[in-house]
Amino acid sequence: MDKRKERGNAAEKAAREYLQKKGMQLVQCNFRCRWGEIDIIARDGDYLVFVEVRSQWGKRGVSPEEWVTRAKQKRLRKLALYYLQKEVGREISCRLDLLTVLMNPSGGAGSFNHFKGVF
């Protein structure tokens, strides 16, 4: 496995643990279809939440939330709608969240920023 994939997996694991500590229940991770992937699908009370995870290792000029382009946001909405139609089959309350993870050089999570309902 390449280093980028290893780092992404570590950040997603840290994100899952963070969401569970916040009381969210994981439904599915890495849902894939022809339009892409949803990193995490979770329940937060009555909401089904689609979570995009972005990580940063060390200090860089651009923050992780700036990497989510308009095209990526549009694709995430399309993925969420597809998931709702295919897996849920009914109208429910949902939202799209962004969770950024600042990782330590040692591989542990340093800090999180959870933006709820941003897309």
Approximate strand percentage:
35-45%
* Residue runs with pLDDT of under 50 for 5 or more positions: none
Q: Which CATH architecture is right?
A: 3-Layer(aba) Sandwich
CATH topology category name = Trna Endonuclease, Chain: A, domain 1
Category from helices, strands and their pairing: alpha+beta
Structure description:
With 119 residues, this protein is of the alpha+beta class. It has a single domain, classed as Trna Endonuclease, Chain: A, domain 1. Helices cover 32% and strands 39% of the residues. It has 2 helices and 5 strands; from the N terminus they run αβββαββ. A 5-stranded mixed β-sheet has the order 1-2-3-4-5, sandwiched between helices. A hairpin with a 2-residue loop joins strand 1 and strand 2. The longest helix is centred in the first third of the chain and has 19 residues. The chain is globular and about 45 Å long. The mean pLDDT is 89.
Compact overview of the structure:
The protein has 119 residues and is of the alpha+beta class.
Salient structural properties:
5 strands; about 120 residues; Trna Endonuclease, Chain: A, domain 1; 2 helices; alpha+beta; globular
